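## retry 2 of 3
previous attempt timed out at serialization; input unchanged, resubmitting
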Amino acid sequence: MGVIAFTLDGEWMREFMRFPQRLYRDDDGWVPPLEAAVYAQLDPDADFLRQPGNAQRHFIARLRHRTLGRVTASINAALKDENGAPIGCLGGFEAVADPAVADDLIGAAMRWLRDRHAVRRILGPMNFDVWHGYRFMTRGFAEQRFLGEPYNPPYYPELFERSGFALRQRWHSYEAPAAAYQDYERRAREKQPLLRDLGYRFVAFDRTQLGKEFRKLHHLLHRCYGHFPAFTPISPQEFASIAQPLRHALLPGSAVFVHDEHDQPCGFAVALLDLAEALRAMRGRNSCLAWARFLQVRRRARRTFLHMVGLVPEHAQRKRGLGAVLMAQVAAELRAHGQAPQLAALVAQGSPSQKHLERIGASATREYALYEARA
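## retry succeeded, writing output
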């Protein structure tokens, strides 16, 4: 078996892109990403690679003209440890269930990060940064997929652990019965008059002003999540290009901001219509026919999930229940439109949202993990 390393090579990039289609051919849980979006992410002219100091290198494991695995090593100049040293990333990992394949692939990628960029710490799986996909699923493989959920064969985490990676952070997705949300909404309504007296104002996301609202959300995400592991800033323009597809998943009332006594945005909550099946119907294509299939399946979509909740640190520290009220308000708006959030997605372990959800009796049915290794 040999490992091929490349950066700019059309033939090997096509093979890099095709491999997941073969690997997941018989896996009903996999939702193929749009090929055009993946190409755009790996293109040398992508926003990530235009940033000074950023770099990537791709690796493919081959045996007798057959691809057995792939991975991308990357350097994000904005991702550094507490001493200012660079932290490397391994993403795009896909491989057959063979530890030798993973050892060779991951070993080659780690050597490139160590020898060419003096990296001593590596995060994985992470596609360049937290904005382009990261984390393995570690539990919940039999559950129905939702839009944006990490997905991989169950053996991937073990392959990373064999290569020296250890758990860095864990997340869960929660399910709760509709009755639990209704009780949650009732208790949140009791808090709303006090919050209004303190000067807080809840403002619905204006779907007719996407550019303006995405800029507001971009600002809040940087303030609310800036302390999260591996969080790195991106420009408003790049964020808008990532967020634009979500317009298909936004429902009336499914996103809300909260403004403080100075009318400054200080928090948000976003729920989405689950379009995983609509995206699956596109089969990775971006053609008119693929979009027709997407729209046909979207019309039948009924499942919704709570996607994100955030408060800027100074308001979170006041512990006035703002986060709970934001979550409850979005749930109430969805219910008013004949929907109910079946899931609260990708909740970080130890976060305030986890405590809120467990308080209403929600069950963690899925689990995800980010790993770290020393090069």
